[in-house]
UniProtKB/TrEMBL annotation, chains A, B:
It comes from Marinomonas sargassi. SUPFAM superfamilies: lambda repressor-like DNA-binding domains, RmlC-like cupins. InterPro entries: Cro/C1-type_HTH (IPR001387), Cupin_2 (IPR013096), Lambda_DNA-bd_dom_sf (IPR010982), RmlC-like_jellyroll (IPR014710), RmlC_Cupin_sf (IPR011051), TransReg_Diox_bact_type (IPR050807). It comes from the Bacteria. Keywords: DNA-binding. Residues 16-70 form the HTH cro/C1-type domain. This is Helix-turn-helix domain-containing protein.
Length: 185, 185
DNA sequence: AACAACTGTTCGTCAAATAAAACATTCGTT
DNA sequence: AACGAATGTTTTATTTGACGAACAGTTGTT
């Protein structure tokens, strides 16, 4: 299935209100900035009606978020995959022996980073914007990674993902610890 | 700017027709499968009108593509980033010294894999579905990666991305070569 | 050539989404 | 407590998107 069969109305209803409150806008304020009427917005958040693209587009630009954010539902939790764990995937006609770490929800945005960290640098991160998820794969060295309250020790090939909207840490345990970093929002 | 200021009508007009032809559907066929009238679809592809979410949703499911694909314009090319290259990013309140390898276009889907490959295994891949892009970051060892016609030697920390809809190779040059694999579609 | 089956476009009609204003409700201030 | 300014919801009118049918244009089959 290419996308969830969920009702788009309900998704929009939820995400619209979620993003509006995240931005600290009132319903009337957002309506004014976006150039749509309060009544329209009110009904959209109530889950009734079938908005046009232009209406949603105006709202998404007013909220300063990519359009597609309004069309996706929430994501959760924390997960670790040790090297060698995970389900192997026969990737179609390709013959790679690959482990699927995380398949991508429709229309999530994943930015890729490469980091090189030293043991004396402890990296605390304040929570990012709500709904973000971070993926980390250790390439070299060892590191203590995850939520601040409960970081997990990772070795090369280990994988972890955790919500980025909570306080989290990255602490290298060896020199030149290298990690691939994927932020999902 | 969070998203291009382009007119959503034109984007939809283009992407709708692009995806329809890619799937080999006629206008009437798609309309029938999606459960929308030919006239509506005709006008949408003509760039007139302001479709409702439900209409677009029906079309996207009929085309078996994520909704957001209809809201974005085209992507290209090949790229290599050696370890140490690339623009450092001050990632907001976080203090990671991170290199941005590839920022994610709105609503692309990126699946994450971890691979361990031996020198005697040469991995040729037939082209995947059109429009896919593959990202590879070498964690350990060395490898010859990229398009079949012109693979590139990569060392730990090196990054490459290339279109996945063309024939490509992954050939490990050392034992236990480890790579992070990201397929984007 | 005539016919049938398809291509996509352009008409009226109807239902529905949008907007503006009137409507409640809560909040903060004097 | 009383007022003004917010909040978000519910009205009434108007606009407009979606449908179905009739339309013109191509392709291919007998």
């Amino acid at each position: 299935m290419t996308q969830s069969t969920a009702d788009p109305k309900k998704i929009i209803s939820a995400s619209l209100q979620r993003e509006r409150l995240k931005k600290g806008y009132s319903l009337g304020k957002l309506a004014k900035v976006a150039g749509v009427s309060k009544s329209t917005l009110s009904q959209l958040e109530a889950g009734v009606g079938n908005p046009s693209i232009e209406t949603l587009w105006s709202l998404s630009t007013a909220l300063e978020i990519p359009f597609s954010v309004l069309l996706e539902q929430q994501k959760p939790i924390v997960q670790v995959l040790r090297k060698g764990e995970g389900t192997a995937v026969n990737s179609g006609q390709a013959d790679y022996k690959a482990i699927l770490l995380a398949n991508c929800p429709a229309s999530a945005r994943r930015d890729l980073y490469l980091t090189l960290v030293q043991p004396d640098e402890i990296h605390h991160s304040q929570p990012h914007s709500k709904g973000t998820i971070e993926h980390v794969i250790i390439a070299q060295g060892r590191a203590l990674v995850g939520l601040e309250e409960e970081p997990i020790e990772l070795n090369p090939g280990d994988y972890i993902c955790y919500p980025g909207d909570q306080a989290h840490v990255f602490r290298a345990l060896e020199k030149n610890t290298m990690a691939v970093f994927v932020t999902e929002h």
